C-alpha cells in the first residue's frame, strides 16, 4: 500500500457522495446564474463544493483548499486540495449528461493523486503518483495510435471565445490533420479519456488549476505525456495543457506551434 492510498480512497468516497448530490440536482430544475457572458454557475456547483470541502477538511484538518467556486483556504500547508465540484456546468445546465466531480491533492507543489467521477455514467477514474491509473478497479493505459492522421483528439474553448477567438486557428488545423476532433465540454473528462485510450490526445488553453489537476495525474499515470505547448512538464497554474499517448506528442506540438 502506497503513502497516499488511504487519502485516495477518501477522495473517491467524497467524489461519489458529491456525484450523488449532482444527480439529485440534475433530476430537478435549479437556478442558473452567469459569472460572465457565457460562464454559468448553478446551485449544484456550490452545494457540491460545500460537501467536498466539508468532508475533506474534517478528514484532513490543516490541509489547504482551492476550488472553482471561490474556495481559497491557503495557509501555506504542504497539502493542497484542488477541486472542481462540477466540471461541465454548461452541459449540466442544458441537461447533457457529460460532467464530473474532479478532486486532486498537491503535496509540496507536486500532484500526488486525483479522482474524476462522472455521476451519470458511474465511471470513477483515479490515480496516485507512482501507482498507476484506474477506471473503477481496472488498470487503464493510453492508446497506441502513432499517426495523427488516424487519431481521435479533443479540445475545449474558453468562455471569452466570442471576443478572443482563442483556439479557433489550432482547432481548424487539427480538424484538417487528425482523423477527427471532439469537444466534450469537460477538460477533466477529456484528460481521463486520453488516459483510457478513448482519445489519443487533448489540448486546451485558458484553463484553471481545478480544470486539469486530477485529470493530469490520471493521464500521466496511465502512461500519457502531459505538458504545456512548449513541451515542458505540465504546471496546473499555467493555463494550457497538451496530453497525448506520447506517440503523438511531437506531432501535436508541431500543430500547436504552427502559424
What does this protein structure show overall?
The protein is an alpha+beta fold and 259 residues long. The protein folds into 2 domains: 135 residues, Fructose-1,6-Bisphosphatase, Chain A, domain 1 (2-Layer Sandwich); 110 residues, 3-Layer(aba) Sandwich (D-Maltodextrin-Binding Protein, domain 2). It is 34% helix and 27% strand. It contains 8 helices and 15 strands. Helix 1 runs antiparallel to helix 2 and helix 6 runs parallel beside helix 7. The longest helix has 22 residues.
The N- to C-terminal Cα distance equals 48 Å
**Biggest sheet, open or closed, and with what strands and sense?**
8 strands, mixed
Q: Rough shape?
A: globular
N-to-C series of helices and strands = HEEHEEEHEEEEEEHHEHEHEEH
Outline the fold blueprint.
Blueprint: H1 5-26, E1 32-34, E2 40-42, H2 43-59, E3 64-67, E4 71-73, E5 79-87, H3 89-93, E6 100-107, E7 110-118, E8 123-128, E9 133-135, E10 138-139, E11 152-155, H4 161-164, H5 168-177, E12 180-182, H6 187-195, E13 201-205, H7 209-221, E14 225-227, E15 240-244, H8 249-257
Parallel strand pairs: 3-5, 11-12, 11-13
Antiparallel strand pairs: 1-2, 3-4, 5-6, 6-7, 7-8, 8-9, 9-10, 13-15, 14-15
Characteristic key phrases:
259 residues; alpha+beta; Fructose-1,6-Bisphosphatase, Chain A, domain 1; D-Maltodextrin-Binding Protein, domain 2; 2 domains; 8-stranded mixed beta sheet; 5-stranded mixed beta sheet; 8 helices; 15 strands; 27% strand
